[in-house]
């Protein structure tokens, strides 16, 4: 092999090695970029899930008020303290479909009368109740015949938020939604008007 051929061969090897180093450098930069950006992406995704769920919760409170007015009976909202679930139920056995033997009738009534919602798994309702509860809870037996009743046993340890047919509510309420022991959102209820609002706190990083 001539000297010129050797030089060309060495030059090609150097170019190949340099290209490999470039690829490794680019990959390293991408990994650093992903490690910086990915936590922010997760926070944004989590925040969006929370906001959607809080809007659903707000809609559930509004539905309880509207249905109380329309049906002329009290409706109650239950929050799973230290958990993610909530329920809206009428304080009227006939609206729950009880007394009917056909399961289809109970399911239809359940779909019309009971709202069953849930926060994202990384969030939970505060265990602390910042109000004095004056209204009795409905007996759990009223719900026992409904299809999803086995998933609602938690409500026996909860408290009722009652809406009246005149559109008002029994209590003023401010209840927090937490993430890893940090308050990130709250729902507020004005008893006199029955109106609810939602507010959000800036999440603090540990």
TrEMBL record:
The keyword Transmembrane helix applies. Keywords: Membrane, Transmembrane, Transmembrane helix. The chain crosses the membrane at residues 20-41. InterPro entries: N_methyl_site, Pilin-like. It comes from the Bacteria. This is General secretion pathway GspH domain-containing protein. The lineage of its organism: Bacteria, Pseudomonadati, Planctomycetota, Planctomycetia, Planctomycetales.
């Amino acid at each position: 092999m001539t000297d010129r051929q050797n030089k060309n061969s060495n030059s090609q090897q150097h170019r190949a090695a340099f290209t490999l180093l470039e690829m490794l450098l680019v990959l390293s930069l991408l990994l650093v970029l992903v490690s910086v950006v990915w936590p922010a992406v997760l926070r944004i995704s989590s925040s969006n899930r929370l906001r959607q769920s809080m809007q659903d919760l707000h809609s559930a409170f509004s539905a309880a008020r509207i249905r109380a007015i329309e049906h002329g009976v009290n409706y109650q909202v239950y929050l799973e303290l230290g958990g993610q679930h909530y329920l809206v139920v009428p304080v009227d056995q006939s609206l729950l479909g009880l007394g009917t033997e056909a399961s289809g009738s109970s399911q239809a009534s359940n779909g019309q009368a009971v709202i069953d919602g849930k926060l994202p798994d990384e969030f939970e309702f505060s265990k602390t109740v910042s109000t004095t509860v004056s209204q009795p809870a409905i007996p759990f037996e009223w719900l026992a015949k409904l299809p999803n009743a086995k998933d609602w046993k938690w409500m026996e340890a909860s408290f009722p938020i009652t809406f009246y047919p005149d559109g008002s509510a029994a209590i003023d309420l401010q209840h927090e939604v937490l993430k890893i022991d940090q308050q990130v959102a709250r729902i507020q209820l004005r008893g006199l008007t029955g109106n609810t609002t939602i507010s959000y706190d800036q999440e603090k990083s540990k």
